[in-house]
């Protein structure tokens, strides 16, 4: 019996050890904490309003179309458009929803006679040679008689109050009349009467309307300067003399205002006179070339402002 008791005790001991070992195996070591790396926040570029300030320069204004074509091809679509004189003509039609290629088609099909309605008699007591009705009607036809405040883009046309000498920014009302007032070169077009006041060409007070683009809410202003250098032109006709006079008068004012632009695009139009409507295609090409050259700097500055 004693030997049987010892054997039984040995079996109990072995069973107990087995249970203890089984219990030890079932206990897993605590899992190591999972460390989740922080996800870096990607800063979204802020939305900025781009303004396009289109300067005056008569027939040289066709260059604005080339600039617009290049900007659009790169996805740079201005939110605000402001124009002086020829810039107001192109700007109004652009703000109406016409892209650069449509503007080019309009320009090449434009009959100069439709915007040059000579007042008769030429030597009447009127203070200008052209009435401007043709220009007004042409613009209204091209924008579908849409008033400024209902155009597809915010638009402003700069003119000069003939009596006070102060600039005015037309942002409401008849689009054709506003463009006509902005383009009324003294001695060429008769002053435009609006609400009892007379207005003439905006180039007298704001050759390239950068400050007005800012006033309309633009964060980033692209200025297009189509004025010529006084020494670069030899006046031939009375129109050339007047445009040369405008250029000389506006030089210091232009330099001051252009300093407030984020970038200035200046098409090479040294050999084109303001009266050269036949050179419209070359002007468009000059605008394309100048805008293309400015693209690297333009993109870099827009990106920097978006990320600031």
Could you walk me through the main structural features you see in this protein, from its secondary elements to its overall organization?
The protein has 308 residues and is α/β, with parallel strands linked by helices. Helix 2 packs antiparallel against helix 4, helix 2 packs across helix 9 (280-307) and helix 3 (86-95) runs antiparallel to helix 6. Strands 1, 2, 3, 4, 5, 6, 7 and 8 form an 8-stranded mixed beta sheet that branches. The termini are far apart. The longest helix has 28 residues, at 280-307. The protein contains 9 helices and 8 strands. It is 42% helix and 12% strand. The radius of gyration is 35 Å and the shape is elongated. A hairpin with a 2-residue loop joins strand 5 (192-194) and strand 6. It has helices spanning 2-26, 63-73, 86-95, 100-109, 133-142, 175-182, 210-215, 238-258, 280-307; strands at 50-54, 80-84, 155-161, 167-170, 192-194, 197-201, 220-224, 263-265. Residues 52-214 form the PNPLA domain. The active site is at residues 85, 201.
Summarize the topology.
Elements (H helix, E strand, L loop, with lengths): L1 H25 L23 E5 L8 H11 L6 E5 L1 H10 L4 H10 L23 H10 L12 E7 L5 E4 L4 H8 L9 E3 L2 E5 L8 H6 L4 E5 L13 H21 L4 E3 L14 H28 L1
Parallel strand pairs: 1-2, 1-7, 2-3, 7-8
Antiparallel strand pairs: 3-4, 3-6, 5-6
Helix pairs in contact: 2-4, 2-9, 3-6, 5-6
């Amino acid at each position: 019996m004693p030997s049987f008791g010892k054997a039984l005790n040995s079996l109990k001991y072995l069973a107990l050890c087995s249970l203890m070992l089984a219990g030890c195996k079932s206990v897993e070591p605590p899992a190591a904490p999972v460390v989740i790396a922080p996800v870096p926040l990607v800063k979204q570029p802020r939305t900025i309003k781009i303004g396009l300030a289109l300067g005056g320069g008569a027939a040289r204004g066709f260059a604005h179309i080339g600039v617009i074509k290049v900007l659009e091809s790169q996805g740079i679509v201005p939110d605000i458009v402001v124009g002086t004189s020829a810039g107001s003509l192109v700007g109004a039609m652009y703000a109406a929803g016409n892209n650069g290629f449509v503007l080019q088609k309009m320009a090449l099909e434009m009959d100069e006679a439709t915007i040059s309605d000579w007042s008769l008699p030429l030597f009447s007591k009127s203070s200008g040679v052209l009435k401007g009705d043709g220009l007004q009607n042409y613009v209204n036809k091209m924008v579908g008689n849409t008033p400024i405040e209902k155009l597809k883009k915010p638009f402003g046309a700069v003119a000069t109050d003939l009596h006070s000498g102060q600039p005015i920014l037309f942002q409401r009302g008849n689009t054709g009349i506003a463009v006509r007032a902005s383009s009324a070169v003294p001695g060429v077009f008769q002053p435009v009467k609006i609400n009892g006041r007379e207005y003439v060409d905006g180039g007298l007070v704001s050759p390239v309307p950068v400050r007005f683009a800012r006033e309309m809410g633009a964060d980033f202003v692209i200025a297009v300067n189509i004025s010529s250098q006084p020494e670069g032109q030899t006046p031939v006709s009375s129109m050339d003399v007047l445009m040369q006079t405008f250029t000389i008068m506006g030089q210091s004012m232009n330099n001051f205002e252009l300093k407030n632009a984020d970038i200035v695009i200046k098409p090479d139009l040294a050999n084109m006179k303001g009266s050269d409507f036949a050179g419209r295609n070359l002007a468009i090409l000059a605008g394309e070339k100048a805008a293309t050259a400015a693209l690297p700097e333009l993109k870099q500055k827009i990106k920097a402002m978006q990320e600031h």
